[in-house]
Design brief:
Layout: H1 12-19, H2 28-58, H3 60-78
Length: 80
Amino acid sequence: MAARAISGQLDDEADRALRAPEPAGSTQSEAIRVALLADVRARRRSKELAAEVAAVEADGREREEMLAVAELTESFRAAR
């Protein structure tokens, strides 16, 4: 896919972050690209984890096991 230019407005925090020194050889464009991709990956992973949690909570056997593990963990903590 060909690169395309975009524009946007930065708040003070984003402007300060963009003005911070980039690693040698890195451009502001590359810094923005890396940050954008990292944010997309983090948001995607967060949604995936939420879906996994919902699936575990919806499965009666998984939920029982989760509660048993939590109870066991709490018993170790109480034994201290």
